[in-house]
Write a structure and sequence with these properties.
heterodimer; A: 599 residues; alpha+beta; Dipeptide-binding Protein, domain 3; 6-stranded mixed sheet; 4-stranded mixed sheet; B: 514 residues; mainly alpha; two-stranded antiparallel sheet; 22 helices; 77% helix; 1% strand; globular
Chain lengths: 599, 514
């Protein structure tokens, strides 16, 4: 047996033994004293409560990702990974959907108080908008101004006991795994900030739990105020209750618009140990932020920078001999949507109500779009691994993407753009005249202007005359001003921040706010509605495939590429592995380690 | 005078109100504040959008929304400002954000303005004195070149050559011998062009400049001074005596014995104080800046006393000059204080080569003492200050050159010459002061404008001042933020306009405000 096999075999046996005995390996404290790393981001922490409407943004979530823990996180693939060292969650029933959350006993806030059911209860009443009232106009107001309260999901107070809490959903919910997290705010800290006379954390927790159980709104109103505003801080908070941590790092220093310094949490032992003693996130903002951060990286001021590349930026990055360059996908994706209801050429009304003719025109137009050329010319220079995206719903590499790519019918729209096939579709439908398409893209965006040129050239060969209706202000997205989209085709990108499945109906559902093209398909509506309440992963993927088939068959539009992302990291450190979803390159910060330099 | 100010204030208020209405409406219509949120179709994204619409009152048309903003802004008149919250900056009150940004902007602008004024006036006036000389043409050429450079381009070049490459040089100061020779000859020509004079005088200047440059560059490269600079008592002496020479040259010249001896005395005192000052400032770091101020005052007082007691008939003017020189000679002592920290500082910062940073206003988490902190802030100010300096320096040279030329043709200058005053006295006593009158008003107006921040410079060098705030507000269509900026910079400009008028009337007795 080769030595490497022996090692692998031993490791496998050891691993199996660990799994079988239910043990986790003893925690190793790997923080190297005196090490620090400086990284750039376009904004820094300004709110220690990342769940409130004011504090819910990416920059806050990144710093708070390092000062908090959770039942799961996204890795770089991106895939949702569970963290058993922190706690566990399990679906105990499908009908009604019941999820039991447990936090391990050793998990503590940085002031030594345990993270327990009181904190989960606070997360529940805020995230599910438990305390709300509806006024005469039907507008709902919430006691706690959470960024996205969801009272329709769970309306009953969950049962809780020592370190556990059990959510019972009113109806099944597709993204139940992503819906609940402890957040970054301790229940006892919030109560003690609201009532400074309470100094015992246990007393604070007890009073809070009682108030929630008795629906004591008069006690909770100051708590809600503290929850919303006490955590808003631009500089190092004077009250340590504000900056409590239960993650690998603690906020050590915060300097408005400059940097946030995070220091390793000496008590942290419920997850992988970080290596750097300090992490500094510097604010690099403004129009030249990315090139500024690259100059700073070359000068040694920072070690990691990231952003959206241009050919110039990429060249600068590759010119830095002391840095590694990581090209990859971002979660944002470019797409073309067609308009079904504006009396234009893609609307049956234009063809005298002949839906088949309109469908043929849509299909022919989408068939001409040279998606591969666009990717080759505009994206591959920035990300050599770029490919044409083939799914409306699923990010490449996400669950079910390969099946959708193979079976949903995108193959009918060859990536190279097939002018002859498009001509044939038009001829078969009996259309001989040239067709005028009002095409919109955001004016001032050079990459989209180039895409328009590629699309227009190919379409012209098949008999489409593209008319640019580009303007810079995205006016059609203001549905109050433009209930019907005046453009026949629009080119822009949707952003995604998670693998959440819910939300697709906003773009494809009849009369939904982000369905700018007036697309209507009752079958898609019902499939998406079913998807929303499906908790089984295999069934979710089957439903998504069905939706995709209909979208491609109806010639809804097309998808082109994922935005390229660029992360540049100094060769002084190892372990950087950018991911497409928030928290982006920060997701595995505990693996960042200094490279020992030869003395 | 009171009437004048009162009238101007009322007029100003009206102008500001009307202007704020237009700025508000134009900003609100300049784009869609929800544009980014519209692209996020998740329930969270939609909830965020609704939240933004609610807190910013976006369903009200901008023209009407202005009148919900105005009462809060009018509150500023009675000390209760409410300029709303900024959604782009974490929903903090705009007044708080303005306060933070103002501090940062003033820190950056002050030094750059002072240096630009001193250098601009000095260069401008010397070109005027040697009008149509090679020096004048060269300076004119370069000021126009600088004047026409876009600041963003200068800034990027500065980062590359003023930081990245200069840092490499600091770490490894190797200048090839041929380059030292070429530079020395070049500097020789520059020195003679600036100083001018007869043929013999010029030859001496060339030799002086060339040898001086050669010595300095040779010293740098052979001792590798920049890798761990120190100045010691020799450096303090050299710089103190150089300052004395500059002050003399700019005032009474070297020809008189009394002032020369007084200035030499001040420089000698500064040199002698090398160790005491160092010791005092090291041990009293707690109130370091107070002690520094104290030392400056003592230096100035000693200078003043020397001038007073040895000045003879001209004691009044000599004591003033000596006091100025005394205060200036604190500079080598500061260098001394900074340079002894150089090695430790380099160990604490992230920059691998050299010390000059490209971004931000301080080193994060620097665990240094008072003087290291001050050194750190100054190093962060180097590049943005140079960028700002280049831009405004050019303007000041043109203004002061034109102003002095005009004054030199006035009757009273001819009269002064006719009564037998030396040319130096004519210039320093009569021409220079009067030439400064228009410059003073220009400076006042410029400072009013600068409080609005330097949008591009702040953006590129990562100073989160007023300009950066404005740029952010405009980019994300945060009307409250833009209006906050508008109010502060608008008020500053108007106030300094009034101040400029008052200064003018104070300096020039022919002008009366009424």
């Amino acid at each position: 047996m080769k030595p490497s096999r022996l090692v692998a075999g031993t490791a496998a046996i050891a691993g199996a033994a660990l799994v079988l005995t239910g043990c986790t390996p003893p925690y190793q404290y790997e923080v190297i004293e005196g090490t620090e790393i400086h990284v750039a981001w376009n904004d820094i922490l300004d709110n220690f409560n990342g769940s409130s409407a004011a504090g819910n943004n990416v920059a806050n979530s990144i710093a708070l990702y390092m000062t908090g823990s959770g039942w799961n996180y996204y890795d770089g693939s991106p895939e949702l990974i569970k963290s058993p060292e922190f706690g566990s969650y399990e679906k105990t029933s499908d009908d009604p959907l019941t999820v039991k959350y447990t936090i391990n006993n050793n998990v503590k806030w940085s002031d030594g108080v345990e993270v327990d059911e009181a904190d989960m209860l606070l997360a529940f009443i805020t995230g599910f908008g438990y305390f709300n009232s509806t006024d005469a106009d039907g507008a709902t107001t919430y006691l706690f101004p959470h960024a996205n309260p969801r009272p329709e999901l769970v309306s009953t107070l969950p049962e809780f006991s020592d370190h556990t809490l059990t959510l019972v959903y009113d109806k099944p919910y597709v993204d139940w795994e992503l819906q609940f997290a402890v957040g970054n705010v301790a229940a006892h800290a919030t109560v003690m900030l609201a009532y400074p006379e309470i100094t015992d954390p246990e007393e604070a927790k007890t009073k809070f739990i009682e108030a929630v159980q008795n629906k004591d709104v008069s006690f909770l109103t100051p708590v809600a105020q503290a929850w919303n505003s006490a955590f808003q801080q631009t500089d190092t908070p004077s009250n340590p209750l504000v900056s409590l941590s239960y993650g690998p790092y603690i906020v050590d220093e915060l300097k408005a618009d400059q940097y946030v310094a995070l220091k390793a949490n000496p008590d942290y032992n419920w997850g992988p140990s970080p290596k750097y003693e300090k992490i500094f996130i510097h604010q690099y903002t403004g129009a030249t932020a990315f090139s500024s951060s690259l100059t700073a990286l070359e000068n040694g001021e920072i070690q990691i920078a990231s952003g959206q590349p241009t050919p110039d930026i990429l060249q600068i990055a590759q010119g830095i001999s002391t840095a590694n360059v990581f090209s990859g996908d971002e979660a944002t994706y470019e797409h073309v949507d067609l308009t079904f209801n504006n009396g234009g050429v893609f609307d049956p009304a234009y063809w005298g109500g002949d839906a088949a003719k309109a469908l043929a025109v849509r299909k022919a137009f989408l068939t001409t779009i040279p998606r591969q050329t666009i990717v080759n010319e505009l994206i591959k220079p920035l990300n050599p691994n770029a490919e044409v995206r083939e799914s409306f719903l699923v990010i490449p590499g996400g669950p079910g993407y390969d099946t959708i790519k193979a079976e949903a019918g995108s193959a009918n729209y060859p990536v190279a753009g097939d002018v002859e096939a498009a001509k044939k579709i038009l001829a078969d439908a009996g259309i001989t005249e040239r067709i005028e398409v009002k095409f919109w893209y955001p004016l001032g965006n050079a990459r989209r202007a180039s895409q328009y040129e590629f699309i227009a050239q190919n379409a012209a060969l098949a008999g489409f005359d593209l008319v640019s209706t580009a303007e810079p202000n995205w006016e059609f997205t203001d549905t109050e001003m433009w209930p019907i989209n005046p453009h026949d085709a629009v080119l822009f990108a949707w952003a995604s921040t998670s693998l959440a499945i819910s939300g697709s109906d906003q773009m494809f559902g009849t009369d939904k706010p982000s369905n700018f093209g007036g697309y209507k398909n009752s079958e898609v509506d019902s499939l998406l509605a079913t998807l929303e309440v499906t908790t089984d992963a295999a069934e979710q993927q089957r439903l998504q495939l069905e939706v995709e088939k209909l979208l491609w068959a109806d010639a809804y539009g097309t998808v082109i590429f994922q935005f390229p992302g660029l992360t540049v990291a100094s060769k002084d450190l190892s372990g950087v592995e950018p991911g497409p979803l928030a928290p982006y390159y920060f997701w595995n910060f505990w693996e960042w380690a200094p490279v020992a330099t030869a003395q | 005078m009171f009437l004048f100010v009162a009238r101007r204030t009322v007029a100003t208020l009206m102008v500001l109100i009307v202007a704020s209405f237009f700025v508000y409406v134009l900003t609100a219509y300049s784009g869609d504040p929800l544009q980014e949120l519209r692209l996020d179709t998740t329930p969270a994204g939609i909830a965020k959008m609704n939240h933004a619409i609610e807190v910013l009152n976006l369903n009200t048309p901008p023209v009407l929304r202005y009148f919900t903003w105005l009462p809060g802004a009018m509150g500023c008149l009675i000390g209760q400002c409410d300029l709303g919250i900024s959604l782009a900056k974490g929903e903090f009150p705009v007044t708080m954000l303005l306060g933070q940004a103002m501090g940062s902007t003033l820190q950056l602008i002050t030094l750059a303005s002072v240096l630009a004024i001193i250098l601009g006036v000095a260069v401008g006036m010397t070109t005027a004195l040697r009008q149509y000389s090679g020096y004048d043409y060269t300076v004119t050429f370069f000021t126009f070149v600088i004047y026409s450079l876009p600041v963003f381009w200068v800034a990027v070049l500065l980062k590359q050559y003023g930081a990245v490459e200069l840092n490499k040089f600091i770490e490894n100061p190797d200048i090839p011998i041929w380059l030292i020779i070429v530079l020395s000859i070049f500097m020789g020509f520059v020195v003679q062009a600036v100083l001018g004079g007869e043929r013999r005088q010029r030859l001496i200047s060339v030799a002086f400049g060339a040898v001086g440059t050669m010595v300095v560059l040779g010293f740098l490269t052979f001792t590798r001074w920049t890798t761990s600079p120190s100045i010691g008592i020799v450096g303090v002496a050299l710089i103190s005596f150089a300052l004395a020479a500059i002050v003399l040259a700019a005032s009474v010249g070297f020809s008189q014995k009394v002032p020369t001896m007084i200035m030499l005395g001040v420089a000698a005192f500064s040199t002698a104080m090398w160790y005491p000052v160092w010791y005092l400032l090291e041990v009293n770091q707690e109130q370091g800046f107070l002690w520094l101020l104290g030392v400056i005052i003592v230096f100035a007082l000693v200078g003043w006393a020397l001038g007073w007691f040895f000045g003879g008939e001209d004691r009044k003017s000599y004591s003033k000059l000596a006091a100025i020189l005394g205060a200036l000679t604190i500079l080598p002592h500061l260098f001394n204080l900074f340079f002894v920290r150089w090695d430790n500082y380099k160990r604490l910062i992230q920059i691998k080569n050299g010390v000059i940073p490209t971004f931000g206003s301080e080193t994060a988490g620097l665990n240094g003492d008072t003087w290291m902190g001050a050194f750190d802030v100054l190093l962060h100010m180097v590049l943005p200050t140079v960028a700002l300096l280049l831009v405004s320096f050019a303007g000041y040279t043109r203004y002061s050159r034109a102003s002095l030329l005009e004054v030199m043709n006035q009757d009273y200058v001819r009269t002064a010459r006719a009564k037998g005053l030396s040319e130096r006295k004519v210039i320093t006593r009569h021409a220079f002061r009067n030439a400064m009158i228009p410059i003073a008003t220009i400076v006042a107006l410029d400072i009013g404008g600068l409080i609005g921040g330097a949008v591009i410079t702040e953006d590129i060098f990562g100073w989160s001042g007023m300009g950066a705030l404005f740029a952010l507000g405009l980019r994300v269509v945060d009307v409250n933020l833009v209006m906050g900026f508008f109010l502060v910079s608008g008020v500053a400009i108007v106030i300094f306009n009034v101040v400029a008028d008052l200064i003018y009337s104070a300096l020039d007795p022919r002008i009366r405000v009424s």
